[in-house]
Design goal:
InterPro entries: 2-thiour_desulf
Radius of gyration: 14 Å
Shape: globular
Structural class: alpha/beta
Strand order of the largest sheet: 2-1-5-8
Keywords: Ligase
Distance between the termini: 25 Å
Pfam family, one: 2-thiour_desulf
GO molecular function: ligase activity
Protein name: D-alanine-D-alanine ligase
Length: 147
């Protein structure tokens, strides 16, 4: 069973109110082998919302907007609810939106809102990985279908 970021299967829940749709990921939902979840919506964040990035403040990680509004609590709440869903449903693999402060795996934006990427994980991806869920970005997972 897979968990997939809702925005990757056409659900308009991204920060800007949009989504992307990957037919191969949609197929997993239609076959009943995946569930779609948006950790940011589970954290009660609105659609649309200001873009957020992870920032380090005095050794502590926070998730903030460019103008300094701190949404760390909402992002942590969404991450925990996502983990709870995985544990309740037996999900062992997650396909998550790359670079996101929630779902990014391997690389995330650096917190400067300049588009620069750094090594790291979003809060949900990190929590899932720390609890035994294998996490892939959509790009990593879809590579298996390239010729």
């Amino acid at each position: 069973m897979y968990l997939i970021s809702s925005c990757l299967v056409g659900i308009n829940c991204r920060y800007n109110g949009g989504s992307t749709c990957h037919p191969k990921l949609e197929e997993l939902l239609k076959k009943g082998v995946a569930i779609a979840v948006c950790p940011e919506i589970l954290g009660d964040l609105p659609i649309p919302r200001d873009p957020c990035e992870i920032q380090a403040n005095k050794g502590q990680l926070s998730v903030c907007t460019k103008n300094g509004c701190d949404y760390t609590k909402a992002f942590r709440q969404g991450a925990q609810k996502t983990l709870d869903i995985c544990q309740t449903t037996g999900v062992t693999q997650a396909i998550l939106q790359s670079r996101s402060p929630s779902c990014g795996s391997g690389q995330i934006y650096d917190g400067s809102f300049t588009g620069k990427l750094i090594d790291g994980n979003g809060l949900t991806a990190e929590l899932l990985q720390n609890n035994g869920v294998s996490v892939y970005t959509e790009t990593e997972w879809l590579k298996q279908f390239e010729d």
